[in-house]
Amino acid sequence: MEKYLAIIMLAAPGFIAKSVAKLLGDSPPKRGELESVMVYFTYSIFALFLTVIFASWSWIGLIPPGATWAGIEKLFESPSFLIKFFCVSLICSVLVGAAWQLVLEKRIVKGFNWINKKLGGNEIFLNGSLFDRLFVDDKKDHFLVVEKDGKIVTMGFLRSWNSPDSDRLEFFVAERPAYREWMNYVKATGIEHPLKKILGVYLDVTNNTIIREHEFPQEWLTTSPGRPPGQVNPDCLAEEL
User: Fold this and answer.
1) CB within 8 A of 211, min separation 6: which ones?
2) d(Cα 54, Cα 80) in Å, to the nearest integer?
3) Is the whole model's pTM more than 0.70, yes or no?
4) Cα gap 98→184, rounded to integer Å
């Protein structure tokens, strides 16, 4: 029983910390079993290290100052101490997961990318796919034109997507007829309009899919776009800029 309890207390902080990081936007790639275990174990090490520090503080008073290893082992025989220690460990696990996702990961990756740039290397990203890095991780609004096999499938704002560790990519684009009408109008007239500006092109060579990201009028985020001037044939869809 004691061995199982020790395993739980060692593994639980890593699982909790990783879950918190994922809830805050962490998008890990699909990993093998061994790699997943190592990730949880790494989180557990930092969470337990922080737990010991907190437990040693006098105002918490779980571990008395100057306690020996034998004395600490004896403390774990007390059910009340185990409950208190687990509560502190739970709080520390949440802090570790949140700190990694919200603060540490971005700064560490930024630092290594700075080094890579100085050495003439390429930019790296730890989690998720290129799609997640471009359209999900930055927390911005993206107006996308999705093309499959040379035909436009949809255009509109990216609103939701599935977990990056899934076997296939799925995402939802909120489309309105006015978006296509405006795209067609801008192409036909050549007027100056935010839609003319392409911010980037994402290519999925395997599935013959192209996703263009366009600039868009900021008021489209809060109000429904009206129809463009003049009559636009709704059957005449914009194929490309």
Assistant:
1) 144, 145, 146, 147, 201, 202, 203, 204
2) 17
3) no
4) 45
